[in-house]
Specification:
Order of helices and strands: HHHEEHEHEEHEEEEEEEEEE
Mean pLDDT: 90
Strand content: 25-35%
Distance between the termini: 54 Å
Number of domains: 3
CATH architecture of the largest domain: Sandwich
CATH class of the largest domain: Mainly Beta
CATH topology of the largest domain: Immunoglobulin-like
Strand order of the largest sheet: 4-5-3-7-6
Number of helices: 6
Largest sheet: 5 strands, mixed
Radius of gyration: 23 Å
Shape: elongated
Structural class: alpha+beta
């Protein structure tokens, strides 16, 4: 019985070691990994610390590789191609999450090369054009703020990467606005997105300097539309009752966001 137990421990330890070695090789590239294997074994001797449960902690792995000078990115790239893969998330939510994260990191030229869905697996391949390189450490750090985690990162070439991501618990907008306060939403070039989880009612107030024609959409956590309010006439105030499964609110103008010149004010009432 003891022998079986020891064998199981050794087997699990070997599997974890193989998984970590594979992750490092994928991020560095196989030729670089093989060339520096001895040094890698030394600096990653405490293998258990590079796991979060059974998942490789890519943030720690890439951070360690970078601090030891074992991974570098080109200052700029031509025709950067990146594949994003998820097996357990809603495709519409997944694409918006990735787009928003890339936008946060300064990428605005995002062109779809291909998208496909087979069973529960969704693949979105994009080109980021002639730009600076996508920093994998910054990228996954931003994703983790939205409860999206890397299952596998693969570097095929300097300008061709793949990210397999766990988005099963993804949150599009992690930060919720406080309940019971009148909050100012500043002027924006895009529609407003607000996390309204746990809310019962929402009131939106427009400035007299605006010409706001309300176009407001309530979504559930998977970006399925629950309700829409659309008006082709100028309004100063809009009140909404939020269904229990309401998660996100998109606030726009029926014609153009430019009509909201002076921002908006919003009041969110908590569901009790």
């Amino acid at each position: 019985m003891v022998k079986h137990f020891l064998f199981l421990i050794l087997f699990i330890s070997a599997m974890f070691s193989q998984s970590l070695d594979s992750a490092i090789s994928n991020v560095m590239g196989s030729s670089e990994y093989i060339a520096k294997k001895k040094f890698i074994n030394v600096i990653f001797s405490d293998k258990d610390s590079y796991f979060d449960g059974s998942r490789v902690d890519y943030k720690k792995v890439i951070g360690k590789l970078r601090s030891e000078g074992l991974i570098s990115l080109a200052k700029n790239s031509k025709n950067l191609k990146v594949s994003f893969v998820t097996k357990n998330g809603n495709p519409q939510l997944f694409v918006k999450l990735i787009r928003d994260t890339l936008s946060t990191l300064g990428f605005s030229d995002i062109d779809t090369i291909k998208s496909s869905k087979s069973g529960g697996r969704f693949v979105w391949i994009v080109s980021l054009g002639d730009n600076y390189m996508l920093d994998p450490l910054l990228f996954i750090t931003e994703l983790e703020k939205k409860s999206v985690y890397a299952n596998r990162i693969k570097r095929y070439t300097a300008t061709n990467w793949s990210y397999e991501l766990d988005s099963s618990n993804a949150v599009l907008i992690p930060q919720k606005l406080p309940f019971g306060d009148i909050l100012k939403l500043k002027k924006t070039l895009l529609a407003y997105w607000v996390n309204i989880e746990g809310s019962k009612k929402v009131q939106i107030q427009s400035s007299r300097y605006n010409s706001w024609h309300p176009y407001v959409v309530v979504y559930d956590k998977n970006l399925k539309i629950i309700s829409t309010v659309s008006k082709d006439k100028v309004a100063q105030k809009l009140k909404l009752n939020i269904p229990q499964d309401g998660m996100y609110l998109k606030i726009d103008d029926f014609y153009t966001i430019k009509n909201i010149k002076d921002g908006l004010a919003i009041y969110i009432e908590e569901r009790r």
